[in-house]
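Preliminary data (for renewal application), copper (II) ion complex.
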Amino acid sequence: MITRRGLITGLGAGAVATFIPKLSWANREAGPLAMPPLLDATGTGRFRLAAQSGQTNFLGNTATETWGFNQAFLGPTVRVANKGAVQAEVENRLNEAMSVHWHGLVIPGDVDGGPHQPIAPGATWSPELPVDQASATVWYHTHIHGETARQVHMGLAGVLQLSDGLDDERGLPSTYGIDDLTLVLQDRRFDRRGRMDYSLSMPDQMMGFLGDTMLINGQVSATAMVPRGIVRLRLLNGSNARIYTLSMSDDRAMHLVATDTGLLDKPIELNELTLSPGERYEVLVDFGDGKDVSLISQQSTNMGMMGGGMMGGHRAAGPPFEILPFKVDTALNARIAALPLDLGGSRPDMDETKATRRKVTLDMGMGPGMMMRRSSNRFSINGRSFDMRRTDFTIQRGALERWSVSANMMMHPFHVHGVTFQVLSENGRAPNPQNTGWKDTVLIDGRAELLMRFDQPASEALPFMFHCHILEHEDGGMMGQFAVV
Ligand code: C2O
Ligand code: CU
Ligand code: CU
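Predicted structure:
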């Protein structure tokens, strides 16, 4: 049985106090899902974002303070050409510093928007982004060290599409909001009055924040209207910590067409897709039978094979919960009826024999100190907690490196700035099919080998970050930085 609200229950180890607010939401007619507004900058090569505060009424009874770009919560879907300089302008109308990091753009460190590039209240940051990479669904979000989790939770995130304009030739659905849906998955908690609540319990501080209510594009209980044909779902996990294990409620296939930073060569048929924080996947789903169906997720503990082995992988007890129901609307134009066979994308296939090896261990401190509020060094990489003033290593520009990344205590979604990488193996075996495309974030459940080339420069003053994308872990110190010279 799949329920709609207060639905993410049954989490292991009391990770979340399951609180189901008694609200009238269930009787409210949930509306059709809205897309983020599309800000198409493919023609002009320039766009403007203004971080601002506003009021959002998620549950229909109380407005809550939220932040967004050009609107009250989250930001527009910005579409830019995949090649050519893009002039961005980001104004900060909030009264604290924030930043905009372009997660998935392979660009130099001096325009990357990480923790060394805060935008002061009232200031405007105008980086020119030298975009030159394959079509992809990437994203943008704030990245102030120690504040990222709270600021993203407030809403400082949005989707960035890199487009080469060739999707029609590929036979890929591309009508924004009709057969090409942008879906930002986030979990939240609300208090009795319907206000968004980001108070961290001790398990939250350790595991990362887990909510009990799903937001899709900032909406609760909405239904996606789809044409009777093939629809593209661009999935972004914009949650602070929750890992989704997605499937369709009737088990119909999801055809994977793109991973974080590019299209595949050809679709991969999947019945289940794991989506960890920071990752993007694009899938095609066939609604040609006209039946209503839902995107659902299994419960997850984040424990993985290290801590959750006894519970059978990373699945927790409890029923699957609904992410998003779909309703077929025959009035919508079903433009694509057949799956494309050839996507024209690529799978990475670099020569690993020339790679320099590097070990990266994602650590969580053990013992009683681990549970202490704001204890330092609780989270670290290779035994060191993040330090803004320390360059962890320097890489020669153009170097190829093979990183052996291991996750301790639980699964950690690992992200590297300034590159796109190939997953060579996971726990000594061939990578999971969903990880065979170009990636910039990968869920480490045990150990994975990653191969990447460092073509973008980053100075010691404006270095690239590498970190766990569970935002509470990142803020807690599970992050490092490197220069490329
Ligand atoms: Cu999506 Cu360093 O972040
Ligand atoms: Cu990033
Ligand atoms: Cu982590």
